[in-house]
Amino acid sequence: MDMQEDPEAWLRRAEEAVLDAALVRAPAMGWTQAMAAAAGADAGFSVGETELILPYGPADLTALLSRRHDAAALAALPDPAGLKIRQRIRAAVLARLEAAAADAPAVRRWSGWLALPPNAPQGLSLAWESADALWRWAGDVAADENHYSKRVILAGILVTALAVRLRGGEAEAEAYVDARIANVMAFEAWKAKQKPGEPLRRLAEGLGRLRYGARVSPRV
Q: Based on the number of CB atoms within 10 Å of its own CB, is 163 exposed (0-12), middle (13-18) or buried (19 or more)?
C-alpha cells in the first residue's frame, strides 16, 4: 500500500484489481476462498493485503461484481425522459443482462455460488440492490408499499432473465423479459384498482425485512 494514497482510494483501486483477477480465475475455481486468495496474489497483493481488501473473501467479490454490472448497465442506458415506463424497464433489464453477459463464464459460477442456501440472503440483497438502481434510473419515487413490490418483482425478473440469457442466449432472454414486463404492467393496472389495506401493508413490511434484514457482507 502506498502510504501517500488515501486509504479509501487505495481500497477501491485494490478491489477492482482483485475483481479483474477473479474474473479470470472464477470459471475454473468457482467463487471460493481459494479463488479469492489466488486472485489477490495475481493482482500483486500479499496475503495480509488480500484479507484487508476482502475480509469476507468470495462474498465481497460477488458483491463487487454485481455492483460493477449495475454501474455498467446504468452507464449504457439513455436519458429516460423520452421513454414510457414500460420502455424504461425493458431497457434497464436488458442493459443489466448485457453487462452480466460480458463476464458470462465467471457469472455462471457466480450465480451458482449465490444460489447455495448459505449464500441466498446475499443473492436476494444484491438482486434487490440492482432492481432498486434500475427503478431509480427509471424515475420511480414511490415511498409506500409500491416501493417494495416494484423492486421485489423486478429483482425476480432480473434473476430469472439472467439464467435464461446464460442458458438460451440473447433472443430467448429478450422474449422472456418482454413477457414478464407484460405481466408486471397487467399486475400494476390491477393493483391500481384495489384499495390499500392491511394485507398489502404487511406484505410491504415483509419485503422490507427481506432486503434489510439479510445477513450479508458488510459492504453489501
A: middle
C-alpha cell recorded at residue 48: 495480509
- Reported as type and span, the H/E element at residue 4 is none
CA-based angle 182:186:191, to the nearest 5?
145
**Are residues 103 and 168 in contact, defined by beta-carbon separation less than 8 angstroms?**
no
Express as a percent the part of the chain with pLDDT over 70. Answer: 82
Q: What is the DSSP-derived secondary structure letter of residue 103?
A: T
Cβ neighbours of 85 (radius 10 Å): 15
Picking from 176, 170, 74, 175, the residue whose alpha carbon sits closest to that of residue 130 is 74
Answer for the pair 35, 58: CB distance below 8 angstroms, yes or no: yes
Helix then strand then coil, in percent of the chain rounded to 5, is 80, 0, 20
pLDDT given at position 208: 55
Task: Sort residue 30 into left (φ over 0), alpha (ψ -120 to 50) or beta.
Answer: left
- What is the pLDDT at residue 50? 98
- Which regions of the chain are under pLDDT 70? 1-5, 186-220
How many other β-carbons are positioned within 10 Å of the β-carbon of residue 117?
A: 6
pLDDT tens digits, one per residue of 83-116? 999 999 999 999 999 999 999 999 999 999 999 9
For residues 63 and 147, the answer to whether their CB atoms sit within 8 Å is: no
